[in-house]
Amino acid sequence: xxxxxxxxxxxxxxxxxxxxxxxxxxxxxxxxxxxxxxxxxxxxxxxxxxxxxxxxxxxxxxxxxxxxxxxxxxxxxxxxxxxxxxxxxxxxxxxxxxxxxxxxxxx
Length: 107
Known about the structure:
Elements: E1 2-7, E2 12-17, E3 25-26, E4 35-41, E5 44-49, E6 53-57, E7 65-68, E8 78-83, E9 89-93, E10 98-101
């Protein structure tokens, strides 16, 4: 299974492949954000994008839950995410901040 992200100028999308990249299907019911990076560790994955939005999947990307960094006043673009394991992630933003969570993005 693989993932890619992109946008059409109005909102972002995440696409999923199950055949090594020969074909992709759009993941439905996503939040309206331009997603810039997707990363998985096993079945747990995260995607990040504009306005401090990031989403998490615990079922291999079939469904996604919305998280955000508004509690930290982060409304800038989240440019990258790296997943060490299901609970430990690092997120980088375009304003130079790095965020680390060791509890799956809860805080």
